[in-house]
Amino acid sequence: MESFSYTEVPDIRAAVAAGQRGGRYIAGGTTLVDLMRETVERPGTLVDIARLPLTGISPAPDGGLRIGALVRMADAAADPRVRSAFPVVSEALELSASAQLRNMATIGGNIMQRTRCPYFRDVTARCNKREPGSGCAALDGYNRGHAILGGSEACVATHPSDVAVAFAALEAVVRLQGPSGERTLPFAGFHLRPGSTPDREQALRPGELITAVEIPALPPPARSGYLKVRDRQSYEFALTSAAVALQIQGGVIRAAKVAAGGVGTVPWKLPAVEQHLLGRRPSDALWAEAAQRAADGARPLRHNGFKVELLKRTVERQLRVVGGTR
Predict the structure, then answer these.
(1) 150-208 tens-digit pLDDT
(2) Per the record's keyword annotation, is Transcription regulation included, yes or no (predicted)?
(3) Architecture of domain 222-323 in CATH?
């Protein structure tokens, strides 16, 4: 770990000012500190925002929920309002990490976390995320855990967050505070695909601070859930995952929200699956048909072709679990 300066800020205005000067925000620190130890991240200044008043969970104007950026993952997962209205969020959080990490890590930090690509974390390897223009060792290296959707010639690293997949499915909004004031950003536009600039991962402006994630209300009687497929049941990142929310009324699917994780360079929304479900009657055949569209546009690499079929099966299984057959 290299030397750095540290400052604790008393309010959001001071945090934004420090961020504008190049400071890196830190709260739980469960990702950033690890990367600093490995010299992958080398911030000159850490800005401690842990004491800012961003720890609440409250109703959103449309009847949904607003989750403060500094709410701990464990607290969000256990909150009765989250568990009742958005089981997909609480399940994604509980499957995200060990209990110790969930007690420290924050919602804002979770959606900001960086990839678990081993080449990114190996400072001797080529990585365009870490050192733009150096190349991508995963393209011709061992790439079993890498993305089949959203990759480019510059990067094929997956986004690691589970709850971000749930937020993407639910079409959440990220609330930001920056030098120019407040703004909101649709979750679908928050994470950036690598393209030719994989080192730029979020659509944040200099100095901007995440203040909350806002989840819109689901139309009743909606059901939701999260499925994570991994190599082992204990703390592990997803090979594939599926976040599903369905409103079934009068025996017909009136609303469908589906996203996938472990397969994309960003949390991957599945509009083709959603569209295939709308206006249809639930059945085993429908779940299978819709899931076939989950891997549309996939570009598997040498070692991860299995993810194409695994993604389809993961989505089909979770559609059946959430929607049942009627």
Answers:
(1) 999 999 999 999 999 999 999 999 999 999 999 999 999 999 999 999 999 999 999 99
(2) no
(3) 2-Layer Sandwich (3.30)
- Band (pLDDT 50/70/90 cuts) for residue 325 is low
CATH number of 5-50: 3.30.43.10
Label the pairing between strands 181-186 and 173-178: antiparallel
- Tell me the residue type at 11: D
For the cut 60, the answer to whether the pLDDT of residue 326 exceeds it is: no
Check the CA dihedral 27-156-302-298 and report its sign: positive
> How far is residue 318's CA from residue 244's CA, in Å, rounded to a whole number?
7
Strands, DSSP E only, in the chain? 5-8, 24-26, 45-48, 57-59, 65-68, 173-178, 181-186, 209-215, 222-229, 240-249, 252-261, 268-269
Q: What is the pLDDT of residue 65?
A: 98
Q: Which two tokens stand for residue 279?
A: 């206006």
Give the pTM. 0.96
Q: Give the torsion through C-alpha atoms of 96, 31, 120, 42, to 10 deg.
A: 170
Q: Which two tokens stand for residue 214?
A: 């806002």
Residue 223 to residue 246: CA distance in whole angstroms: 5
Q: What is the mean pLDDT of residues 135-158?
A: 98
Q: Where in the chain is the domain with CATH 3.30.43.10?
A: 5-50
Q: Are 281 and 252 in contact (CB under 8 A)?
A: yes
Give the mean pLDDT of the chain. Answer: 96
**Where in the sequence of the chain do the CATH 3.30.390.50 domains occur?**
222-323
Q: What is the DSSP string of 131-179?
A: STTS--TTTSS--TTS-SBS--SS--PPP--SHHHHHHHTT-EEEEEET
